[in-house]
Design goal:
By secondary structure, the chain is of the alpha/beta class. Helices cover about 35% and strands about 25% of the residues. The relative contact order is 0.18. Bound molecules: adenosine-5'-diphosphate and magnesium ion. InterPro entries: AAA+_ATPase (IPR003593), ABC_transporter-like_ATP-bd (IPR003439), ABC_transporter-like_CS (IPR017871), ABC_transpr_LolD-like (IPR015854), P-loop_NTPase (IPR027417).
Length: about 250
């Protein structure tokens, strides 16, 4: 459903500080595949994700999402397919607004699955039901401002709001990097559940090799703008956690 064909991205072309961030990557990601990307700093992971999201436009190559050539389409024109969650929990939601109002805003912006902005009480009830599925007890705090929640709680709500869009692709760039270990675990489990429940195609970039091992149906390793390892679900299932550490040996 995502076909990346011989994609290249060079920054500062022709200058002394030229970087070939993505160096001719071809990658086909199937519908409902959950792809994990690992690789050392500067290997081009975020650039690849930006190319899929449309916040970076390639110098060469094509990107097809669901039979639509999106190669030259700006990111806001790809939002019908793509939702994105960043490292920083603050960037996904408005701190001063209540949980309920954040969902209201999201509902106005997009057409979220299973939410109708009609009668107030009905909307409130729907939001409560959605939030209850996170299993964090936040359904009883929907009048509380987002800023009073923990990073993990905010990130879980951001995830929920983003996947309730009509989107089919979820991009996660180190979504737990700014969280304490317990919150990180909650957010990863939430992401995994939402990806399965909403039948999403997902790409996760992580530095956490345990998460890379435990989550996802396929794993790739990037180095210097290229894919140097690619394990499908069968091969990933037989991978040992230590093998992953060896990749970085
Ligand atoms: N906007 C940019 N301008 C110039 N160089 C960039 C830009 N974005 C990324 N780079 C460079 O491209 C390379 C790959 O970066 P990135 O994709 O962020 O790697 P990763 O996410 O794997 O750490 C790095 O050398 C980085 O400095
Ligand atoms: Mg990065």
């Amino acid at each position: 459903m995502i076909a990346i064909n011989d994609i290249h991205k060079v920054f500062n072309k022709g200058k002394a500080n030229q970087v070939n961030a993505v160096n001719g990557i071809t990658l086909n990601i199937k519908s409902e595949e959950f792809l994990v990307i690992v690789g050392s700093n500067g290997s081009g992971k975020t650039t690849l994700l930006n190319l899929v999201a449309g916040s970076v436009i390639p110098d060469k190559g094509t990107i097809i999402i669901d039979d639509n050539d999106v190669t030259k389409l700006a990111d806001h024109h790809r939002s019908q397919w793509i939702a994105r969650v960043f490292q920083n929990p603050i960037s996904g939601t408005a701190s001063d607004l209540s949980i309920l109002d954040n969902f209201r805003l999201a509902a106005i912006r997009t057409k979220p699955k299973g939410l109708t902005i009609g009668i107030n009480d009905q909307f409130k009830q729907q939001v409560k039901e959605k939030i209850a599925t996170l299993g964090m007890g936040l359904e009883n705090k929907i009048e509380q401002s987002m800023g009073t929640l923990s990073g993990g709680q905010r990130q879980a709500l951001t995830l929920l709001m983003s996947v309730m869009d009509s989107c089919k692709v979820l991009l996660l760039d180190e979504p737990t990097a700014a969280l304490d270990p317990r919150s990180a675990e909650v957010v990863m489990r939430t992401a995994d559940k939402l990806i399965a429940d909403f039948k999403l195609t997902a790409i996760l970039i992580t530095h956490n090799l345990k998460d890379a091992y435990n989550y996802g149906t396929r794993i790739i390793q990037m180095s210097e703008g290229l894919i140097i390892n690619d394990l499908d679900s069968t091969k990933k299932a037989t991978l040992k956690q230590n093998d992953l550490f060896d990749w970085f040996g």
